[in-house]
Amino acid sequence: MRERWSSRTVFIFAAIGSAVGIGNIWRFPYISYEYGGGAFLIPFIISLFIFGIPLLMLEFSLGQRFQKGAVYALKSIHPKLGGFGLIAVASGFVIVLYYAVILAWSLVYLVESFSFNLPWASDTNSYFNSVLGVTESISNIGGINWILLIALFFIWVSIFFIVRRGVLSIGKVVFLVVALPMILLLILFIRGITLPGALSGIIAYIAPDFSQILNPYIWLAAISQIFFSFSIGFGVMVAYASFNRKEQNVKTDSYITGISDALISFFAGFVVFSILGYMAFATNVSVADVATSGHGLAFIVFPEAISLLPLSWLFSIFFFLILLTLGIGSAFSIVEAVNTTIADRYENPNRPMIAFFVCLISFLLGTLFVTGAGVYFLDIVDHFAVNYGLITAGLLESIAVGWIYGAKKMRTYINNTCGCNIGPWWDYIIKFVVPIALIVLLGLQLYQDLTVPYGGYPAWALAIGWSAFLIPLILSIIYSLIGKEKKIYKKRKTR
Questions:
Q1: Which of 9, 62, 143, 300 has an alpha carbon 20 to 30 Å from 150's alpha carbon atom?
Q2: Most distant CA atoms of the chain, gap in Å
Q3: What is the pTM of this model?
Q4: Which residues touch 255 (CB under 8 Å, ≥6 apart)?
């Protein structure tokens, strides 16, 4: 018998915990600021309701309807469609290899924060490079950073204990990984808005530039933010929903998860820019001079801003606890998608053993990212795995459900779970809007990468990035070509 979440509330918290990750802190606020401030909310909210939530409905209904993870749910539609799910799970697996390393960085910074004198206060950029042991270029791989390796080991041990019994053990921690960072964000927000210069930072964040609405790239930025933030294309939401009862309300779950993620992203922007506004005030520069995104915000700019505060060590602990808890919620959800795919092959899967080997292999493969050139490899693999792997997975998934299984057929199932009447608009979104938007995103990204080599990296390094996308794609194609009816393997009974 398939495992079940202990309650619907636990499932919703798990879905929110997966959706809300580090990107909500270090990506959304800057993208909003860069693309017109408050004006960005218009395409973002529109994308949320005509793109994000319908896709959440698709993934929730896919897992819940077939009671399987992404690979075998799609294989239930047609034996040749298993590869469509495999590219999602495989791409997610590639991503979690380096995502866990970012959590290792956070762990190191968290430990270092338990000091009255923050070690990075004088030069956050140099400190970040010293923590990572960064070499001068990707061509010099350098050695293993043993401190990061130990931190990475603890991250994977934590993930193993969280996922070792599937939803039975995950359900015990999801409230913590959602509630704790929200409480800490609220504390940072209260502290941030009381600082001098905070208002200028917040105004820079939300002041609308409506001329940006006519910029097509603001719409593509909104769609991509929704897509990446909702954990779509990882196989995570399909796996999580597969442990619901078939009659659970898909529509309401999708709206709660999607709106919660969007609100948390928006709120995080107030936290980030109130403190960046203070930093600009304290250093006598403009907000534009300190605003950035990605690991530069999380590990260089924001730590510098925090170091200027009274009780800086305490607020540093809060900040890196936020990154660690948000990040680990996303990380273990990706691992669970992999574990679910493997477990679906067996009638009585040995979940602790599956979790052990998945975590062990992930830890060993992740050692590439704790070398001196690890941050360069992380940058490259992230670019190709996310911008090609996840988007391709989402595209294939929408085609499989929209055109092969039938969008109307899946919509009928969703309506039966909620007793509502989602109209034919959902069919058109899944069949036309989503595929067209994702094809445009893929096309623009491909054109950019073919005309200007990403990051100025050498060809051999970019080949590694392309491999992060092409290897899962090739494996998925092979798996689809040899696809046949699923065979369930039963555990042998010992006498």
A1: 300
A2: 76
A3: 0.95
A4: 53
